[in-house]
Amino acid sequence: MDPWLIWLIIAAVLAAAEIFTVTAALGMLSVAALVTAGSAAVGLPLPFQFLVFTAAATISVLFVRPLALRHVLQPQAEKFGVDALIGRGAYVVSEVTGLGGRVRIGGEEWTARAYDETLVIPPGKIVDVMEISGATAIVYPRD
Q: What single string gives the DSSP state of each residue in 7-23?
């Protein structure tokens, strides 16, 4: 079997293993094996093929992987779901106390409780959503 074909098989096996591990390291080694397959196809002797694989793997693992991980580990630019509701304004539909009430947040009605249990917020007031606990908005009046 030709050496370039062996390197190509190694690259395919590493790429398939990367799909299951999702670590990025095996993907980098797969790319290094692919580069080595190219050098083997050109006719580079076997010892130099190992040097090409070692150099490509080292460069990709030491330089490309940290860049990829930094990109993946960046904080989310936007909040989604109930996290996006925190800090938004809400309209009080029915009186909100420390025990319960109803507010409208962005067109949806939510059950609500006052942040401070001694507060009584009348209907028609605007409140800020402090947190979401299950399906209940914890709110505080803007006044």
A: HHHHHHHHHHHHHHH--
* 8 Å CB contact between 95 and 139: no
143 residues of the chain, pLDDT tens digit each: 889 999 999 999 999 998 888 777 888 899 999 999 999 999 989 999 999 999 999 998 888 878 877 887 887 777 788 888 899 999 999 999 999 999 999 889 999 999 988 999 999 999 999 999 999 999 999 87
- CATH code of the domain covering residue 133: 2.40.50.140
SS3 assignment, position 73: coil
Based on the fold, state whether residues 16 and 63 are members of the same structural domain.
Answer: yes
Q: For residue 108, what are the β-bridge partners?
A: 105
Assess contact for 53 and 30: CB atoms under 8 A.
no
Last residue of a domain, one of 72, 92, 113: 72
Single-letter residue type at 12: A
pTM value is 0.52
- Provide the number of structural domains found in the chain: 2
